[in-house]
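Ticket #4471: structure export looks truncated?
Reporter: QA, pipeline team
Priority: medium

Steps to reproduce: submit the single chain below to the structure queue and open the exported record.
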Amino acid sequence: MVETIHVTAERMWKVAYDALLLIGVDKEQARNGADVLNKADLRGVDTHGIARLNHYANLVAKGVAQVAPEVRLVKDGPVAAVLDTDRGLGICTAPAAMEIAIEKARTSGVGMCSMIHMTHCGIQGYYPLMCSDRDLIGLCFVKTGPNSAPYGGKGFLLGNSPHSIAFPAGHRTPGIMFDMATTVVAGGKVEMAQRDKREIPLDWILDDNGRPTSDPFAFEHRKHGSLQLIAAHKGYCLTVIVELLAAILSGMDYEGALMMCIDPTIIRPLDELKTDLDTYFDKIKNSPRRDDVNEIFLPGEIEYKNELRARSEGIDLRVQVAEEVLSLYKKLGGIPESGTIHDLFN
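Actual output as written to the record:
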């Protein structure tokens, strides 16, 4: 059994915020980054929450990411823009790209912003939710560093193309959204299995020879092994198309992103759309179930309920993750050497 400690949502946010300040980013960027990390933990996507803090600190320490980037628009038009984030921490800079897309959608009906010179920007669902929370439709496409192989290949050449789309809530039903990568699991899931020292399903990763393996240590980002793509050739095709949108479109051959926002009122009145979203939600929710299924969930509904519960009841945080964050705090001088995880998270 995985050992956990119970932490309030507010405390989780504060730990992330203070850690980012210790890493060296300014207060505004730290707020952005803490919001992104906290959203992941609240929604139950703990692979992309504060468990990633050490990763971001390492990016800065290695010079891969900057704490004081010169973020600037290199192209700007009525519908589209290109934002150079100057290798800033993606969780701190990416919200600005979606804000640009939102502003353009408000005035032109559709808005988009390509991000160049970016680094890992956390849970992709955060960005379309910025739109759906304002009764807009959000889309996000990201090219990551290499971690998967082309269909029939081996080693790592492609990313796992995280992408997310979110629709606004209905009058009485939550918004419908999805956030997924084109591999069976994200690399963070494999890292969690490494932390727990447990075997993984055979459809998660491939070893260096392109063979399925249950050993989580057969995969390490950009060093050996690769993540397995979903749905065979279909997952491969989706991976390539997302990379075209997220990176090749803007001239990047490495990490990049495309944020998009649509104002649905350019198609029809918002009230009508919300009524139909309620009807659509109910149609699926109340459709016939198999005998072994208690409830049918809409895309994003489980995470939505996780967030409601976590905001009111708190989060069960893995002790090992808490200890990793504590170690980072000690390394950066944010807590005395005698400090414990209870000192940090209480």
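Status: closed, not a bug. The export was complete when the record was re-opened. Leaving a note from the reviewer for reference: The chain has a mean pLDDT of 97.
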